[in-house]
Amino acid sequence: MELPTAQAPTPVQQGETVPPVPSAEAAADAVDVTALLERGRTLATPVLKAAVERLAPPMDTVAAYHFGWIDAAGNPSDGDGGKAVRPALAVLSAQAAGAAPEVGVPGAVAVELVHNFSLLHDDLMDGDEQRRHRDTVWKVHGPAQAILVGDALFALANEVLLELETVDAGRATRRLTTASRALIDGQAQDISYEHRERVTVEECLEMEGNKTGALLACASSIGAVLGGADDATADALEKYGYHLGLAFQAVDDLLGIWGDPESTGKQTWSDLRQRKKSLPVVAALGAGGPASERLGEILAADAKNVDFDTFTEEDFAARAALIEEAGGREWTAEEARRQHAVALEALDTVQMPASVRAQFAALADFVVVRKR
C-alpha cells in the first residue's frame, strides 16, 4: 500500500520532533504566544474553579487535584495545568467575531471541562499512571473517582453554557455536544485499533480527527458563536481548528514515541507500550519495504504477547528504529506541516482584524513546533 502523497518532506533530525514551519504571516512572528496562552488561562481559570466547586465532595477535591490546583494531600499546588491552547483559541475566536475576549470565556471553560473529562477517562482506559509529571487521578484516588469526576465535568460543561440563557449559547451548546460525541467516537476507534493488526492511514486520520480535531474545532469557533457570528464564520473557524487538531495529534504521536519524558511527563516509548496504532506506526506499516515488513512481523507477534512487562528499553527502541527506517516518523512530521497549512488556509474566508489573524497563525505555529 502506498502512503498518501506528501510533498518533498524535510528530513527529521535525530532528537527533533517536527522541523519548524514557516510562519503564515510576518505579523505572526511578533505575537507573544506565551502571553496569548496565559491570557486564556487567566480569563478561564476563575470561572473553571467556580464550576468545579459546585461538585459534591470528594469529587470537588479530586477534580482540583486533576487540574493541578492541589496536591494529593489536598495542599495548594501550582501544578502544570496543561498548555491552555483551547482556552486561548476560544477567547481569540470571540475577537474574530468582533466581540471582547471575555465573551468567549464560558466557551473556553466548557471546552476545558469536556477536554478534561476525556483525559480522566482516557488515563484510566489506557492505564497511564502519569500526566503532567504527576500521578493520574485513577492512580491516586481510584478508578471509580476518575469515572465519576469525568462524568461530572462533562455535565458541568453544558451547564456553564446553558446558564447564559441566550440563543447564541444554545448554538454553542449544540456545537459542543456534537464535538463531544465525535471525541467519544474517536476514543472508541482508538481502543478498537489497538486490537487490530493493520489500520489504514485514512482510518487513523479519521480517528484522530474525531479524538482531537473535533474539540479543537469547537474551541476555535465557540467564542465567535457566543459573540453572535453567523454559521459561515463559525464553520470556517471550525475548519481551522479541525486541521489544527490533526496537526496537534500528529505531533503528539511523534512525542508519544520519541518525546523526552522530562518534557512530556510520560514514560519513554509510551505509545509503543500501549500498542497504539498511531500515525507513525500506521504510516510505517503501510509504506512497504524490508523495514515495514519486519515491523509488521514484530507487531503481529507482540499482539499475541499479553505481558509487555518482559520488554526491555532496547526492545522498544528497536521497534521505534524500524518505524523511523520505514519512513513513519518523517511522514508524520510532514503530515503535521500539511495540516498546519490547511488550517491557515481556512482563515482566508473570515473577515477579522489582522492582529487577530496573526494570533491564530502564531497559535498554529506553536502547536506544530513543540516538545510536549
Mind sketching the topology for me?
Layout: H1 33-52, H2 59-67, H3 85-96, H4 105-126, E1 130-131, E2 134-135, H5 137-141, H6 143-162, H7 167-193, H8 201-226, H9 231-258, H10 261-264, H11 270-273, H12 279-286, H13 290-303, H14 313-325, H15 328-346, H16 354-368
Antiparallel strand pairs: 1-2
Helix pairs in contact: 1-3, 1-4, 2-6, 3-4, 3-8, 3-16, 4-6, 4-7, 4-8, 7-8, 8-9, 9-15, 12-14, 12-15, 13-14, 15-16
Summarize the structure.
The chain is an all-alpha fold and about 375 residues long. It has helices at about 35-50, 60-65, 85-95, 105-125, 135-140, 145-160, 165-195, 200-225, 230-260, 260-265, 270-275, 280-285, 290-305, 315-325, 330-345, 355-370, and strands spanning about 130, 135.
